[in-house]
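Limitations

Structures in this collection are predictions, not experimental determinations, and the ligand pose is part of the prediction. Treat each record accordingly. The example that follows, with iron/sulfur cluster as the small molecule, is included so readers can see exactly what is and is not provided: the inputs are given verbatim, and the output is the predicted complex.
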Amino acid sequence: MPAVVPKGLPLVVTPDAGFLKQMNDDIKVNVNVCYQCRKCSAGCPMSYAMDYTPAQLIHAIRLGLKDIVLNSKTMWMCSSCQTCTTRCPQEVDIAKVMDTVKIMAVAEGVKPPVSRVHKFNRASLRNIKWFGRMYELGLIGDLKMRTFEFFKDMGLGIKMFMHGKLKIIPPISPGRTLTTMGIFSRTYKKEMEKSK
Ligand code: SF4
Ligand code: SF4
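Predicted complex:
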């Protein structure tokens, strides 16, 4: 797959020497042991939709190409299936790297190149925060309000409803909601402390 410089970035990108260290410090995944066998890319079910394959993204991280990595579509297309991590002979946790660069991109204010996925992630988290588990109909409503795609996948939604997969009444449990809100609040505090 030919490498493509994301739109809006200059053709010459200056390496960021601190990027690899930041990655190592944050998640303790040593991407330097990667020897580019590309087993991760070969097994990735989403690589067809990525601008860089998982192996290319790992290589870009090693080179300190922070701008290219954070502006890439790759981590936004990753479905966290863990195939790459399982297949890597060097035990690089590539799926964790994908999550980390996604978090870094959001923290640094990079506009997600696949905004739908970002909106879906946000809507899912809000849903779990309020209900303590996934309330699918609420998630669909939230997402539609943010994407304005009111009629997209409507047929599929009706089919799911007919098969009893979408419940009208949300799964309300005050105890469960308090627990998840506590988790969110502790995570938020940790993030605040880290950013100081
Ligand atoms: S499978 Fe592991 S060693 Fe092979 S290219 Fe991917 S990250 Fe590198
Ligand atoms: S976790 Fe992501 S990058 Fe790894 S194989 Fe699955 S979709 Fe591809």
